[in-house]
Specification:
The complex is a heterodimer of chains A (about 350) and B (about 260).
Chain A (H helix, E strand, L loop, with lengths): L9 H24 L5 H15 L4 E2 L6 E2 L4 H8 L1 H18 L8 H25 L5 H30 L6 H33 L1 H10 L5 H26 L4 H10 L10 H13 L35 H32 L1
Helix pairs in contact in A: 1-4, 1-5, 1-9, 2-4, 3-4, 3-5, 3-7, 4-5, 5-6, 6-7, 7-8
Chain B lengths: L21 H17 L13 H10 L3 H19 L1 H5 L3 E5 L2 E4 H26 L2 H10 L4 H31 L9 H28 L16 H20 L2 H10 L2
Antiparallel strand pairs in B: 1-2
Helix pairs in contact in B: 1-5, 1-9, 2-5, 3-5, 6-7
Classes of the chains: A mainly alpha (about 350), B mainly alpha (about 260).
């Protein structure tokens, strides 16, 4: 379920980074308020435990395939939402840096999809509600399955939204949704069963571990709602600012506007701020002098149009010359970059 | 590739002495990723100048090329899987050359592949050229909450330790189970993970006690504090930012083509 940088737009990646930064700061502050400092090394070792547990591959009954634990719900149950969120965030950072799972720009998305939902939605509103203060085997199992399924469904849905909003992948919303949700329903059930079994095991062997976790973590009440409201405002603001930057480049947004509205830009009210911004945008605007420039006439022009004069300014632009210049220029640049690399390395090793 | 004289373990900074400040590297990495992702989905050739960044850093810092390539390739399959839907859904012919019609989907697919190579290479280069403790300190100085930074440091230290423990458990299971390639059932997996968890908790308690005895106060300190040197780090940031902006706003491969052909 890791999002990759390659499928992300700067606006979506930046917005989600801002949201995640807010959640991280909030969790860190909440954790500072609780006096139990011994949880800091506990958190570190549990983060490493998640990696280790993922090496235990088990066979999934009736499928012939095998899977491993995701671990989000186990951490939330053992550590409570705030500590678990930070541990999962650190796990995802290490995965992005050292295991090439997800990307650095996509970290915001990945932390949100895989840590926020289990820690701040599934754990407090499903698991704790079901298990309460008097755990039993059945309650733990039911709570674990339902919360794992809910967490993964929400996460998968979020992946679909982020991917479609980025507009790099062509997967239509519905198709992608139909691909993601059922798969993650199955994964969620298996994850829930294993989580429930592990938690039951710990509860039987060392009940005090679970009790201390439950005591340390009061259910998030009004404060969470406030934080969510703040986050929403921050998201809208950064999203707006970033997508304004993004839309100075005439791809994604304007193109879809041209498709639906028939004009490349909506009629703008002549306000002073807006005109000032528009002027700035005009200056910043980057107009590709070759390549696949979308234009309002795009939908009507057919690829069969071959005469060079006719498809001036039309899209798709059928211009072998620009294609050749793109291909050859790209190859030249790559060769140059590679050559520079070899030269540099030669120079460095000679100097030593 | 000659790797003699490159001390990756001791001092894997970008340059021979001291190494570039991790804050500068993190900033440049984000700038790089923003530029990579900001190109339209049909852009291919204009992404190519960006390869200079990972290539030159790899060259200067003596990162083993084979290791870097392996990490970059590991990340490809998932992206290619999602990217392969593009040729299926986007069949509009974008251009014809030499009797070959190429649809937008294939072009965006190639573009996604390039993006993935660039983004993963940037992450791997950052991770391989920066000692993790210095990276963490840099992140803290950049405003990442201390508890998350400490968490990262602990996680990094115990990663291989606990993974080895898990590998031992899997091996022990394999030796006791029947068959050539015994599979772990869900019930066995649950108790194995449970035991691993209990052992990890015990280990955490032992570690914490011994750290308290040695005067741990919640902060992991570095022997060598970070120093942002403008003559080195400032130039590093300025150079790459300028380069990325140039690549973003000037069609370098197109110019290069025109210049070589004298057009």
């Amino acid at each position: 379920m890791h999002m990759a940088d390659a499928l992300l737009s700067p606006a979506v990646g930046g917005t989600m980074l801002a949201v995640t930064a807010g959640l991280t700061a909030y969790s860190a502050r909440k954790l500072k308020e609780s006096p139990d400092e011994s949880r800091i090394p506990l958190m570190g070792v549990l983060g490493a435990f998640i990696f280790a547990a993922q090496m235990i591959n088990f066979s999934i009954p009736a499928t012939g395939s095998s899977g491993h634990l995701g671990g989000g719900m186990i951490l939330a149950i053992l550590l409570g939402p705030y500590a678990a969120f930070l541990v999962l965030a650190s796990v995802l950072v290490v995965q992005a840096l050292f295991f090439a799972d997800g990307g650095i720009l996509a970290l915001g998305c990945n932390i949100f999809n895989m840590a926020f939902f289990p820690c701040f939605v599934a754990y407090p509103f499903i698991y704790r509600k079901i298990v309460g203060d008097s755990p039993s085997r059945k309650k733990i199992l039911l709570g674990a399955i339902l919360s794992a399924v809910a967490g993964l469904q929400l996460g998968a849905f979020s992946v679909v939204l982020e991917t479609v909003a980025s507009g790099i992948s062509e997967l239509p919303f519905r198709t992608f949704l139909l691909l993601m949700q059922p798969i993650h329903l199955a994964i969620g059930i298996v994850e829930g069963i294993v989580t429930g079994a592990v938690v039951t095991f710990v509860w039987k062997a060392r009940p005090e571990v679970l009790e201390s976790a439950a005591q340390n973590t009061p259910l998030p009440g009004v404060s969470l709602r406030k934080v969510l409201a703040g986050l929403a405002v921050a998201a809208i603001f950064t999203g707006g600012a970033l997508s304004w930057f993004a839309s100075t480049y005439p791809d994604g947004l304007e193109w879809s506007m041209a498709k639906t509205a028939g004009t490349e830009e909506l009629e703008a009210p002549a306000e002073r701020v807006h005109t000032a911004l528009a002027a700035l945008q005009e200056k910043l605007a980057f107009l590709p002098d070759y390549g696949f420039r979308p234009s309002p006439a795009g939908k009507d022009s057919q690829p069969e149009v071959a005469a060079a004069g006719e498809n001036e300014g039309k899209w798709p632009a059928v211009d072998p010359a620009t294609t050749v210049s793109g291909l050859v220029g790209g190859a030249l640049t790559l060769t140059l970059a590679g050559g520079l690399g070899i030269l540099l390395r030669g120079a460095v090793s000679r100097r030593k | 590739m000659p790797t003699s004289g490159c001390r990756l373990d001791e001092n894997p900074g970008f340059f021979s002495r001291g190494g570039v400040d991790p804050r500068a590297k993190v900033f440049v990495t984000f700038a790089f990723l923003l530029v990579v992702t900001s190109f339209g989905k049909y852009e291919i050739s204009r992404l190519t100048p960006l390869f200079l960044y990972p290539v030159s850093i790899t060259a200067v810092s003596c990162v083993p090329v084979a290791k870097l390539l392996r990490r970059v390739l590991v990340a490809l399959p998932f992206v290619l899987f999602v990217g392969l839907f593009n040729p299926l859904f986007d069949r509009q012919i974008l251009f014809k050359a030499w009797g070959l019609s190429i649809s937008g989907g294939w072009i965006s697919f190639v573009s996604i592949t390039f993006r993935s190579l660039l983004a993963v290479a940037a992450a791997v280069v950052l991770a391989m050229t920066t000692p993790f403790d210095r990276l963490c300190l840099g992140l803290e100085k950049m405003g990442v909450p201390r508890v998350l930074v400490t968490q990262l440091q602990f996680l990094y230290r115990y990663l291989s330790l606990l993974q080895e423990e898990a590998v031992r458990m899997v091996r022990a299971h394999a030796l006791r189970a029947r068959g050539n390639r015994p599979k772990i059932r869900v019930s066995s997996a649950a108790s194995m993970i449970g035991f691993l968890l209990l052992r990890s908790l015990d280990r955490a308690t032992r570690i914490y006690r011994s750290m308290l005895v040695r005067g741990f106060d919640g902060e992991v300190r570095l022997m060598k504090p970070l120093r942002f040197a403008w003559s080195r780090d400032g130039i590093f940031v300025a150079f790459w930012t300028l380069y990325f902006l140039t690549v973003r706003f000037v069609d370098v491969p197109g110019r290069l083509f025109g210049w070589v052909l004298g057009r």
